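B., you asked whether I could sanity-check this one before it goes into the benchmark set. Here's the sequence:
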Amino acid sequence: MDELTLDEAMEELVSAEDFLTYFGIEFDPSVVHVNRLHILQRYHNYLAKTTLPDVEAARRVIYATLLQQAYQDFVKSDALTEKVFKVFHMHEPQTKFVPISSITVNKAGA
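And here's what the prediction gave me:
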């Protein structure tokens, strides 16, 4: 992949291990094995919040930094705590607003 541009290489990477290896980030395989999808989703979320420069070398630094950050999130924590995916939020208490004007009283036999 050394002869590919950064964008071409990014299209070729398919697993968390591929990304971490490509950017030269040391990782614990047991952490990645359990959290690979969470790491990639967190990485995607970080990238989505970032304005990327046109200069490839600067983008490479940002990509590597954000991937390192996403990986470290799961070294220090776990998937249940980090709640990257929507499914982890489904059982949280939901707040609903019911205006008083919509409350009625039904009297039996009335």
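One thing to flag: The chain has a mean pLDDT of 83. Otherwise nothing jumped out at me.
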